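Design request, tokens follow.
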């Protein structure tokens, strides 16, 4: 029996109230959720355990609503992201430390330039040739001029820390396309910023 078929049966059983099936789902996906929460809430290490627990509580409550249109790991990523952002909204004064690239660009376009350190640091970490960029506005401007497909790939891989395979699944394209888009996006950013 394939891994996907076993996963679907396990999800169905857990959704129907099978505690053992849910425990197995928890055990299987716990490392993935912990990694994602550590990344999203890197500046709040004391909250990691609580947020991970909240993620699995939300999964337990909402598993019956999982339709299977996307993979379970994609749905779980969304639940993890939502719970992490909920923590930030409730517990952090002012604006959260983690922002999506689209929200940064949206605010930048409307003149609300609350530029965070997240974008330039993440890009420079992934591509050292961008580390000497002196101006965050330059980076945001350059990213805002990327084609939407390039921007989405940069957001998933460089800001959210997804692997190429996960980004491809979320975007509904091949891993080769993701790699190509990211390569062209980084090349475009280097050209714009040099």
């Amino acid at each position: 029996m394939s891994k996907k078929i076993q996963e679907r049966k396990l999800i169905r059983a857990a959704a129907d109230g099978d505690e053992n099936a849910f425990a197995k789902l928890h055990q299987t996906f716990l490392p993935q959720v912990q990694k994602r929460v550590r990344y999203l809430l890197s500046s709040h290490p004391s909250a990691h355990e609580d947020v991970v627990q909240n993620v699995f509580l939300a999964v337990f409550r909402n598993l019956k609503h999982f339709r299977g249109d996307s993979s379970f790991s994609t749905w779980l990523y969304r639940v993890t992201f939502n719970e992490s952002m909920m923590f930030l909204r409730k517990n952090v004064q002012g604006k959260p430390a983690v922002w999506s690239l689209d929200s940064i660009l949206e605010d930048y376009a409307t003149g609300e330039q609350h530029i965070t350190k997240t974008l330039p640091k993440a890009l420079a970490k992934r591509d050292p040739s961008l580390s000497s960029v002196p101006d965050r506005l330059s980076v945001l401007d350059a990213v805002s001029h990327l084609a939407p497909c390039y921007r989405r790939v940069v957001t998933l891989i460089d800001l959210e820390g997804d692997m190429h395979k996960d980004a491809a699944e979320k975007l509904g394209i091949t891993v080769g396309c993701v790699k190509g888009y990211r390569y062209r996006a980084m090349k475009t950013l280097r050209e714009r910023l040099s």
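Comment from the thread starter after seeing the answer: thanks! DSSP finds ten helices and no strands in the chain.
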